[in-house]
Amino acid sequence: MRNLVVLFILFTFSLQAQESDSVIIRKFFNEELTKGKSYGLLDHLANNIGGRLSGSPQAAQAVDWGKRTMDFLGFDKVWLQEVMVPHWVRGDKEQAKIISSKEKTEVRICALGNSIGTGSKGITANVIEVKSFKELEILGKKKIEGKIVFFNRALDPTNIGTGSAYGGAVDQRGSGAVEAAKYGAIGVVVRSMTLTMDDHPHTGGTWYKDSITKIPACAISTIGATKLSESIKLDPETKFYFKQTCEMLPDEKSYNIIGEIRGSQYPEEIIVVGGHLDCWDICDGASDDGTGIVQSIEALRLFKVLGIRPKRTIRAVLYMNEENGARGGEKYAEVAATLHENHIAAIESDGGGFTPRSFGVDNENAIAKMQPWVELLKQYGIMEIKKGWGGVDIGPLKKSGAVMIGYTCDSQRYFDYHHSEIDTFDKVNKRELELGTSCIASLLWLISEYGL
Ligand SMILES: [Zn+2]
What is the Å distance from ligand 1's center to 170 Cα? Predict the structure, then answer.
């Protein structure tokens, strides 16, 4: 009998706990969906500041805006964390042509981030099309030397998660220049990392190695890639011409911006939510990663405006330089380690502001602990908390033992826009963005209440 009473008490207690969690979560959604600031903040960041690559004047403006915004919202503490970042500039509008025995066809390209320029005359050479680094090895120096290598492996459309499709192709963009240079190539042109067939080239970081000759690298639109491939089939002597005047300047001083609300019971246990403030220069970076930035700020604002005090400290971190160096994420983790801070979890939103789907978590024990929370979040669109990946910016914190969590929203349109001139504010839906913000605030609440 006594056992039954105890069980009954435990049962009603857990029911009450559940209820108060669900009431709190409902409050987040009600506030955000009626008086939310996510969309207005994004409007300012995308339309008034715009493209903000590390080291640019717009990136400095964005830092200023992020600090002022969090100060204005009255978080307990807001500060800047200095970090030196690469400063790459694109230069003049890039030019490119396919030159076959029959015709010259202009195509749309853009330089890959961190790439060197071609010189003012540009480069012209025969093209060799490949789909993998293995093919380069098979062709060898004899067939590749003096040519432009054309990487044309498409994203796999049968991959339902577009992030996996991207992950299966992006080595060509990141390492194509280094791999082709090993065999004496003089330049590379990479098919844009998108599943759509359109005429927008998609930029993104490319990475050199000091020991290997640097050669210029550009992205070609998927329409351009199709034309180039067809031209090579018809005329194996097809040449490609491209000109880009981009260059790497000396490092610049920049900042991560951090705002926090102190925990009431375990203030030394920290939960981070973040995204990256920098974005490519050819777009306004609304989806990559303006949405993650405003969701991080706004999630904390919801606690503040609703008078909800978390038990553990919650921090919004606006990371600098994810796109072409990831130095902000490194710096944050380095400082956290120096200060012996205890980060129990880090959440990143860097997949756009689309309809919520799930949270991806890198730790099995944490996933098990979080399963009851799915019931609370299902009605708002979070159908699963499952094995997954956190994000580039929070990655370096993993060493400290923090659980890595990625906010996962519908992924079908993200890579249509990603790193291209059409990643703009008009592609973001206000309501979808707000639902994501509220899901993130809810997760912050649950972790702050129960730990991980
Ligand atoms: Zn991003």
Answer: 14
Quote the ligand 1 centre to 287 CA distance (angstroms): 8
Instruction: Quote the ligand 1 centre to 336 CA distance (angstroms).
Output: 22
| Residue 50 backbone zone (phi > 0: left; psi -120 to 50: alpha; other: beta) | left
Specify the pTM.
0.94
End-of-domain residue from the set 223, 245, 267: 245
Catalytic residue list contains 145: no
**Is 373 found in the same domain as 234?**
no
Alpha helix (H) residue ranges in 97-193:
133-144, 162-167, 171-181
pLDDT in tens, the chain (452 residues): 455 544 444 444 454 455 599 999 999 999 999 999 999 999 999 999 999 999 999 999 999 999 999 999 999 999 999 999 999 999 999 999 999 999 999 999 999 999 999 999 999 999 999 999 999 999 999 999 999 999 999 999 999 999 999 999 999 999 999 999 999 999 999 999 999 999 999 999 999 999 999 999 999 999 999 999 999 999 999 999 999 999 999 999 999 999 999 999 999 999 999 999 999 999 999 999 999 999 999 999 999 999 999 999 999 999 999 999 999 999 999 999 999 999 999 999 999 999 999 999 999 999 999 999 999 999 999 999 999 999 999 999 999 999 999 999 999 999 999 999 999 999 999 999 999 999 999 999 999 999 99
Q: Which residue segment(s) compose the domain that 142 sits in?
A: 91-245
Please indicate, yes or no, whether residues 288 and 141 belong to a single structural domain of this protein: no
Q: Which tokens is 303 given?
A: 């606690």
* Residue 109 forms part of a structural domain: yes
- Asked if residue 273 and residue 153 are part of one domain, the reply reads no
- Of 178, 213, 245, at which residue does a domain stop? 245
- What is the Å distance from ligand 1's center to 237 Cα? 38
Cα 53 to averaged position of ligand 1 atoms, centre (Å) = 12
Query: What is the number of other CB atoms lying within 10 angstroms of the CB of residue 368?
Result: 11
Give the separation between CA 350 and CA 360, rounded to whole angstroms: 12
From the list 322, 323, 348, 434, the catalytic residue is 322
Regarding whether 416 and 326 lie in a shared domain, the answer is: yes
Asked whether residue 217 falls in the same domain as residue 74, the answer is: no
Distances (CA, A) of 105 to 100, 121, 231, 238, 241: 8, 18, 10, 11, 10
